[in-house]
Amino acid sequence: MMLLTLAHMLAVLLMPFVLVGLVNRTKSWWAGRKGPRIWQSFYDLRRLLFKRPVVSQVASPLFRVGAYVVLVCGLAAASMVPLLGQFAPLQFSQDFIVVAYTLGLARIMLMISAMDVGSAFEGMGAAREAAFSSYAEPALFLLIGSASAATGMSSFADLIGHLHNTHFYGPIVVPLVLALLILLQTEAARVPVDDPLTHLELTMIHEVMILDHSGPELAAMQYAAGLKMTLYAGLIAALLNPIDPLVAPLPAIGMSLAIMALVALVVGCVESLMARLPMRWVPRYVLLASAAALIAMLVVGMGVSKP
Amino acid sequence: MNQLIAAVLVLMLGAALCLLPVSNTVRAGCGLASQGLATALVWLAVAPVLLGAPELFIEMPWGYPMGSLRFRLDALGAFFLSWSLPMTLLGAVYAMGYLRKYFDGPRHVGVHFALLNMISLSFILVYTGEHAVTFLLGWEVAALSAWLLVIWDYTNQKVRFAGFNYLVSTHIGLIFLMAALMILYTQTQSWFLDDYGDWLSQHPGTVRNVVFLLLVTSFGLKSAFFPFHSWLPRAHAAAPAHVSALMSGVIHKAGLYALLHSLMLSGRPDAWMGWFLIAFSVTSAVVGGLYTVGQRDLKRLLGYSSTENVGIAGIGFGVGCLGLSWDNPALVALGFGGGLLHVLNHAFFKCQLFYAAGCVYQVKHVVDIERLGGLFKLMPITAMCFLVGGVAISALPPFNGFASEFLIYSGLFTGDAGNIWAKLAFILAATALAFVGAVSALSITRAFGVIFLGSARDDSLPAGHEPSGWMLVPLGIHTAGTVVLGLFPTLGFALVAAPTALFLHAVPDAFAAEAMQGLAAALSRLGAISATVAVLIALVWWLATRMQKQPPRHNATWGCGYGAPTPRMQYTGSSFSSDFAKPFKGILVLLKRHKAPAGYFPSDSYVITDCVDAVERRLYNVIGHGDESASEISRLIHEDDPRLAFAIGLAAIMTIAALVLLAEGALP
């Protein structure tokens, strides 16, 4: 138990850097470049931490507080999300609601920080974030709902981690992983929903919201974004991990980390091979996650109602 | 019970004193003093009942045709009274600041305070009345007083229209209520609500179903459920801020009380009633939430969010109802407990948001979000209170809205229904609730971001600063309530425990106690998490400021290299919502007038957008068509045709005969 908690905390602290590094490495491999080191984003953040921030003259005190709220909420949610299979340091019934709403607090403070500088670009980013996340939120609940109906469990770690013990696992794992992958791309601002490398303010979502952040606040925001990707990648890992971490901790930890790395590679490949979708198609793409989760739910319903 | 009667007398005396020919300040003082005294008296009666003492009951002989009057203070009524009167008192305190400029003028301000006293009086009548007539009397006193309070600014034609709209709607609701009571009277020959309850619990069937639908319609109109909400945005935009706050947060909770009371009296509900309530409430919550997205008028936006929040509480009640019909005590406790807690929490944060909107109006004289901006620097206290209320209304931790929505979600996810499809239907309802949460986060970010952040959009508005303490104190108390109930939701549980237990009276004690313990455990866990998150945020912020060696430098906002930005270039509320609103054209009807710039040297050009109520628009269209077709028919009829006269006479005789025959059959 101690080992698992320790491993979970280390994964939460370090995986954001590793995953971002892996995605960037994959992209440079496709582009035929050598690419940055895996730990490059860690060095970037360390550099930012010691910089003197520049704040907009328009901004209110909320601007700087917001970044830390986003960071703390991300970490608080991470303590309830299963990353290493059927385990999370903090588990209780319906903890996934707390996860979703803690991330919701992070999102609202992110948007408010963006609105705070009175820039049309950042307002645009906040509006897109708000719109797309309200399409994404139902998908997460449908997904959790179908997993809880399939397993009859009530805590996040149990209902994701126990899924492979039920006879629904085969038919619903594909739609659930697809839904989680789309949610990852939406929430962590990856292609095809958002392009983290774009240099045109008009087409950004996440990057444009933190245009005016600098120094430690920018570091907090960047880290929180990486953390969000880690959480979703970890969910996919917990869903696919066949090893019970309570029985065989070390293999389960290794397996989960490997799957998370694999998810990062997939994200990197998607980013290399396709362009960002036109903004008006993004809602449809995000709704695809809801549709996939709904299919999983119907499969569970039909499976249970059949004698 | 004596304290309640004394409170009624004090409120009536206070209302009379408010009308005395003395200065406005003395009149308002009389109103406040009597409200304060009545609140204290009511609390003396209510507190023991809430803490588990037996209910209070009094029967008074009265003249024909009333028979005798009965008043009963049970835990449900005690719960509603326990916050309704103090919040009305706070509203009266707020009015002292809000109406200050009229105090030295010729306007008779005493009437306003007398009406606020009547509102408090109506709460006592509605929440304790056991006799159908006293209940209706309280209902009407509330409706008429609220109408007169709404039209404070009656010289404005729009305000009068909004007032009449409200008056007509609330009386349409009364017709449905009367119909239900008349059906019950013919069945029981009694005026007492508990007799109706006895009859309803013993006679499930068509009559009970009809009564249920009539009551839900009537109470839905009172609490502004969709599609019975069309009066609400107008009334809330037209009324003074404290009246909007009281209407939305307190007065219209009477509809939910009456719904709960009728559910409690009528025994074990059928499963379809629970499903109906859930479907009705989910629709309200989703549509109400969507409406908040497009509004330009801050008070209209907050009004629509009432429709959303009564929907959320209604989902809880529906879940509780299904728990009753499935004999599932955990579901009953989570559903009714969560719904009641949400009613209380909504009263706290909704009044808070309206008071903050009133502060904005007092300073800027507009609540059109497109003309405001950058108010955080002028009025930081109001801004922070609005933000706390906004985070709470989006049900986000660490504030109180989160605790009650968590209970409702828990009810939906523990749906131990036996049937998998019922469970999946619960999950769909939870998904809708998640969507509503995200949408209300969107509209609160939009409102807060556009009004309080950035820089001022319109220089022609007065500069101003924080309003007077009379307005800030009620705002502060409500904010404190929102925060405390969020960090310590067990306090809220202490208030809702007794009324929730009422719904568990049919369940064996051991199971009931277990269900209530589950509720308490969930809430204390949530409180611990919310408090931890709040403390961690404070800690990290403190560390970050300690670590910072040099203060941050200030510079212009990044403008993509453009050197001469103006405040008009900021993102507006309409542009913020347009991305989201496009797929929902049917509900978010956006009227747009624009003149595009043309030619090489474009002169004036403009875009004006306005989000109108789709239901109201449709309503007036239908009425318009009805009017036309009625005049069409009347043109076709020749009145001097004798055959027509005979036909109508015959139809009338047959109708009367049929009614007589039917009445014969209906008599016991």
What would your notes on this structure say?
The complex is a heterodimer of chains A (307) and B (668). With 307 residues, chain A is an all-alpha fold. Chain A has one domain. Helix content of chain A is 70%, strand content 1%. Chain A has eleven helices and one strand. Chain A has helices spanning 2-31, 40-49, 62-78, 95-115, 120-151, 156-161, 169-187, 206-209, 215-240, 249-273, 282-305, and one strand spanning 54-56. In chain A, helix 5 (120-151) runs antiparallel to helix 7 and helix 9 crosses helix 10 (249-273). In chain A, 64% of the residues are buried. The mean pLDDT of chain A is 91. Chain B has 668 residues and is mainly alpha-helical. Chain B has a domain at 268-545 and 568-584. Helix content of chain B is 72%, strand content 5%. Chain B is built from 24 helices and five strands. Chain B has a two-stranded antiparallel sheet with strand order 1-2. In chain B, helix 8 (206-223) packs antiparallel against helix 11, helix 9 packs across helix 10 (241-251) and helix 14 runs antiparallel to helix 16 (380-393). The radius of gyration of chain B is 27 Å and the shape is globular. In chain B, 54% of the residues are buried. At the A-B interface, strand 1, helix 3, helix 4, helix 5 and helix 11 of A face helix 16, helix 17, helix 18, helix 21 and strand 3 of B. Strand 1 (54-56) of chain A pairs parallel with strand 3 of chain B, so a sheet runs across the interface.
Largest sheet of chain B: 2 strands, antiparallel
- The tally of beta strands of chain A, per DSSP, is 1
**Helical fraction of chain B:** over 70%
Strand order of the largest sheet of chain B: 1-2
Number of domains of chain A: 1
The whole-number mean of residue pLDDT values of chain B reads 89
Mean pLDDT of chain A, to the nearest integer, reads 91
- Helix-strand sequence of chain B: HHEEHHHHHHHHHHHHHHHHHHHEHEEHH
Low-confidence stretches of chain B: none
The profile of the biggest β sheet of chain A is: none
Helix content of chain A: 55-70%
Q: What is the gyration radius of chain A calculated from CA atoms?
A: 19 Å
Oligomer: heterodimer
Low-confidence stretches of chain A: none
Structural class of chain A: mainly alpha
The span between the termini of chain A is: 38 Å
Greatest interface = A-B, 71 and 82 residues
| Beta-strand percent range of chain B | under 5%
* Number of helical segments with 4 or more residues of chain B: 24
Distance between the termini of chain B: 36 Å
* Content-based structural category of chain B: mainly alpha
